[in-house]
Amino acid sequence: MTRTLKILLVGLTTSALSTGGVALAATHSAASEHTNSYQWLIGSGGTSPPHGPDITRDTANGHILEVVGHGTFVKGNPDSVTGGGTFVVTDAAAHVLAHGTWKATELDSFTSFGNGSGLPEDFEGGLARLDIRIFPAGTSRTFSGNLQIHCAINNPGSIEGVTASAAGDTFTMPLFGETLFVNQDSDPAPG
């Protein structure tokens, strides 16, 4: 299982990097008016190169979801969300059940946890709830789903990562997470 998981991680990381993936530099808004604009990152935590996908488990059937992605949104504006990413679903024996892409379609909510001590001022923890559209490879059928992005910065004791539900699976047990919200309205950290 470990060898198969490493192969999946390398494949996802390579795929993400070849399409611009999650190895993004944070950008800042030059506007003087705050718009509550955020960039969200899954599978990188704002680092480069990415450490690998976020991994979460469906406790009912043992399925594993590996996901990477990035995009933007404006807090309080459901239609402002952009972005998406890639995913792989495996069974408990690491057999691939599905893989493909997903797109964020609506921001349901966002709660900021603020900035943590010693971090660039534009890095924030938070919880975003997104509606998504899922495009499995090899079929024209698509699915709607929900994705929660949780960054634990400035929220001690919480669990970093993603949870998701779609097509009969409910992935509620984060196993590995590297997520980040970058406040596009913050002044860049000196340095």
Termini separation comes to: 43 Å
* Tally of structural domains: 1
What is the overall silhouette?
globular
Low-confidence stretches: 1-34
The largest sheet has its strands arranged as: 1-3-4-5-6-11
CA radius of gyration is 16 Å
SS summary, helix count: 1
Write the element-wise H/E pattern from the N-terminal end onward: HEEEEEEEEEEE
Largest sheet: 6 strands, antiparallel, barrel
**How much helix, percentage-wise, in residues?**
under 10%
Structure description:
The protein has 191 residues and is mostly beta strands. It has one domain (2-23, 36-183). It is 9% helix and 50% strand. It has a six-stranded antiparallel barrel. Strand 2 and strand 3 form a beta hairpin.
Considering the chains and any ligands shown, give keywords for the structure:
single chain; disordered N terminus; 6-stranded antiparallel barrel; mainly beta; 191 residues; globular
In short:
The chain has 191 residues and is mostly beta strands.
Layout: helices, strands, pairs:
Layout lengths: L1 H17 L18 E6 L11 E4 L6 E11 L2 E14 L5 E19 L8 E14 L6 E9 L9 E6 L2 E3 L1 E4 L2 E5 L8
